[in-house]
What does this fold into?
Amino acid sequence: MPVWLSEQEYATLRAACAQMMPSDQGAPGAEEAGVAEYIDIFLGAFTFDPPRIWAGGPTSGRKGGAAGFATFHRLTALDELAWRTRLEGSQGLPEREFNGPVVGLQQRYRDGLAALGADFAGVDGSEQRRRLRADEAFLDLLWEHCCEGMYGPPEYGGNRDGIGWSYIGYEGDVQPRGYSDAEVSQP
Amino acid sequence: MSADAVIIGSGPGGATAAEVLTRAGWSVVIMEKGRNHLLDPDDLTKPSADYSNDEIKFISRYFLGPDPLIEPRAFRRNAAEGEHTHVGEVNSIPTTVGGGGTHADGKVPRFREEDFRLFSTHGPQEDAAVDDWPIDYDELEPYYAEVERAIGVAGRAGANPFAAWRSGPYPMPPGAPMFGAVLSAAAAEKLGLHPYEAPTAANSIAYDGRPACNNCGFCAFFGCPIHAKGDPVALLTRAMATGRAELMAETYVSRIVTEGRRATGVEFIGPDGITRTMDAKLVIVAGGAIETPRILLLSGVEHPALGRHLMCHFQTIVVGHFPDVRLHPEKGRAVTHVHDDAMVQDERSREAALGAGLPWFRGGLVEHSGGGLPIMEARHSPWGRGHAQVMRDSNLREHMWAFIMQGEDLPYATNTVDLSPSIRDVRGVPVARVTYEPGRHELAASKYHGKILQSVLEEMGAEWVLHTSSPGVSYHGIGATPVPESRHVIGTARMGDNPDTSVVDKWGRVHSLDNVVVADSSVFVTSSGYGPTLTLVALAARAAHHLAGTKPG
It folds into this structure.
């Protein structure tokens, strides 16, 4: 069950992400990493308490230390105003429209996914790519979030088990272990 | 509530003033509009556990602020472009307890003697207000020494042949050199340049109760999870430990209340959204070179130079591709080597300046620097089939090395900060509007020194090299955004002895207000080509000692 998107929207999103980052000759793609899950959780960040905006610190537990990333930060009233405006849009609320209306990411995804077509997940790859290229602004948005979902910390819902990092030989967060001076200075 | 001084801003300038004044027995209230993620909320004399190695939190989601949705800025290159061409992020230095110190990668060079005497040393430039500072290096040196000890700076005296004199060694030896920098430093030396270990506010050994840096690589744009960085954590925890400092986070100062030549208090909006005033015997403004003129303008301070002469550092970025070697830029403290040669005149650079129709030019500090982080890299990689392989090959991160020259901006009266006529922040207050474009000096210096840097990367073995700059300029054809990426913001309330041409005196005191002192990089007369942090911190320490009648020690 998706957190914020409908089942239909989520199926379209998964297919779109898989087209952006396909599983390919042993390389993990968006499907294996849970990239669509990352985006859905972000859009529905305020269905969690605390909201899934900022992971905690100072360590994730992957390289020692406690699993602090898993406890998300509480937001202040101002933080919440900013993030609700970004996600939900200004919705005519004066406190969100002091510089004019803001279209939220939820709306942009809802519109962008609808424009890809209800049959998107079922059409072939070249047709999917053609439809994705038809809306450059939505493509840019989707790509930005695909990159975060593939290569960001797993606590945000993507990069499952660090699969995006391990394929590219990147260790991710390394506190509290860090790197030795020799690792820094040697080839 | 009342205190001997109200300090606006908890960044390096405000934190330094707080530390020096509380040490001298003063009581201070520090008002910071951002959140506290630096100090332990249950015990403000200890560091927090909020920072982490997290690219989403710090790069994508504005953890250190400002969030451009609630605190935007407006931008235009020049007045002919109309009211503004961009609203959103503009030179966003963190809005958080610790300010710009929290996200910096901690390179903290001192200025050199001639940086304080640009006019006397090199003479005038057309259209630029090149001038000498009202103080010189010798006068500032004891404060440089004091603040290097206070924040903890690692470096090696004598490593830089062009360095100004210093009264003692660095408090710590340099940290481990990054592999890529070992290679680029060797290539630079071969071509007759003088690379050296960057003076860095990151502990190379355990220092002042904080651990040695463990090379995690998340320096620039990140808070340090283990507090090994010389951000304001040391200064603020020390100030808090005196019991004479009060930190008010999420508290926005909307106005300094004045009567004639005196400030009587500050008007502020607290976390509850309610506007109040607090009496103040003295106000120290340390909001940075964009927010400080904004506050002074909102407070009705009038001066023809206020908000003028905004300087960033015009960044020349020269990138080389090294297909055969993995440079692992994620290991280490972001930048471990720099060189000053581009700020030192020689026969060839003098000729190049004359050839460009300029009496002289100066470049800036050159940072030897690696690629970014994986989300950043992925965004610049193609989507679709082959994406994973491109990322695994990592041409933009593992196989890239770069020089970033922080080129000196000259002070132009047309580069300004003023109040936006129409854009407001979340509290309804007019935001800062930045009007900025580089002049002929910056572009000519960038072109000349960019070619030298290209030859160094070729000597290092680059398969290809490309140039870009920030802000983007047409001759590069790429990186076209006119909003400068530089987070070095300088000028806008310049210091001087003449109240007609300068906003503050040589102690940072606003000429027209007897008890308002500016303690940040707003007061710089010229920008040099070195990062401004250590110099603004030294100036803040000097101003605070002057107020308290104490001496650096």
Remarks:
- The mean pLDDT of chain A is 97.
